[in-house]
């Protein structure tokens, strides 16, 4: 598990290899990840958007931007947590993801970025 705190918002990420699949005559390596967002600040915040950079050892970097996470824009009061799971497919058994969440602080009405630390995606059978 990797963790990082930005402006009182703690991000924790754990990953899992889910298996291999064939899609369009190509093998795909499936990974899941679980992210916990914990508000350790004294202000209520809301997650509005996400930005991901997905690295695959055989491909270029894929960038993904979107609203919320899995269709939600969670509001977190001080001390609250929000956990969600998602996943991605890679063309190789190794990769990584990193990114950030754009959030708004309800006290100051300012938006800020919360860093999601780089987390590795690796199939256990491919590790020496």
From TrEMBL:
<dbReference type="Pfam" id="PF04379">
    <property type="entry name" value="DUF525"/>
</dbReference>
<protein>
    <submittedName>
        <fullName>Co2+/Mg2+ efflux protein ApaG</fullName>
    </submittedName>
</protein>
<feature type="domain" description="ApaG">
    <location>
        <begin position="3"/>
        <end position="128"/>
    </location>
</feature>
<dbReference type="InterPro" id="IPR036767">
    <property type="entry name" value="ApaG_sf"/>
</dbReference>
<dbReference type="GO" id="GO:0070987">
    <property type="term" value="P:error-free translesion synthesis"/>
</dbReference>
<dbReference type="InterPro" id="IPR007474">
    <property type="entry name" value="ApaG_domain"/>
</dbReference>
């Amino acid at each position: 598990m990797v963790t990082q705190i930005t402006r009182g918002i703690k991000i924790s990420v754990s990953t899992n290899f889910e298996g291999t699949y064939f899609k369009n005559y190509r093998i795909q390596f499936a990974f899941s990840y679980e992210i916990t967002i914990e508000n350790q600040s004294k202000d209520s915040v809301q997650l509005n958007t996400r930005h991901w950079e997905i690295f695959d050892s055989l491909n270029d970097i894929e960038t993904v931007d979107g609203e919320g996470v899995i269709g939600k824009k969670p509001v977190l009061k001080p001390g609250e947590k929000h956990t969600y799971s998602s996943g991605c497919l890679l063309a190789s058994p190794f990769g990584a993801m990193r990114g950030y969440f754009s959030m708004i602080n309800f006290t100051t009405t300012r938006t800020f970025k919360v860093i999601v630390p780089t987390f590795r995606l690796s199939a256990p059978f491919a590790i020496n």
